Amino acid sequence: MDFKVPNIIKGADRPYAFTGLSAIEAWSDYSYVQRGIEKSPYFIKILKKDVDYWKGLFGKYEVPVYTNGGTTIGEYVILEPVNKLEFVEKDDYKLISLSETEDIAKKNEIYSYPYRYMRRKYGAAAN
């Protein structure tokens, strides 16, 4: 299955940062993957002032969009509007920082494998 969001977001002209489980995927070099045909969420931080832009962009490609939570079948986006946005670039995408991602992974045992992977690959970047 080809996912639309990675290609859509590369063409965006507004800032964003993959966050949460989407950041864990990317920083762990996809050793942890949350994607499937039946459920494929993307978690993205955006600026509050850009909510309509992002809803319109994903809507144009018929990708369901939720703000601060939601779920559906298939591929969808959960936007996290923020006042200030910081990101780093990795593999042509914008992500929250490695240390912030490690903090998220460390808080839940289910993400222990990608957490250990990130710590081995990048060293003790966080904590």
Question: What does this molecule look like?
Answer:
With 127 residues, this protein is α/β, with parallel strands linked by helices. The protein has one domain: Beta Polymerase, domain 2. The chain has helices at residues 5-10, 20-27, 51-60, 98-106, 112-122, and strands at residues 16-18, 39-47, 65-67, 74-82, 88-90, 93-95. The protein has a four-stranded mixed beta sheet with strand order 1-2-4-3. Strands 5-6 form a two-stranded antiparallel sheet.
Q: Number of helical segments?
A: 5
Tell me the total number of β-strands. Answer: 6
- Poorly predicted ranges: none
Oligomer: single chain
State the distance separating the first and last CA atoms. 37 Å
How much β-strand is present in the residues?
Answer: 15-25%
The CATH architecture can be given as 2-Layer Sandwich
The first-level CATH class is given as Alpha Beta
Number of separate structural domains? 1
Find the structural class using helix and strand composition.
alpha/beta
Q: Specify the overall morphology.
A: globular
Largest sheet entry? 4 strands, mixed
Mean pLDDT: 91
**Within the CATH hierarchy, at the fold level, what is the topology?**
Beta Polymerase, domain 2
Instruction: Give the radius of gyration.
Output: 14 Å
Helix content: 25-40%
The order of strands across the largest sheet is 1-2-4-3
Order of helices and strands: HEHEHEEEEHH
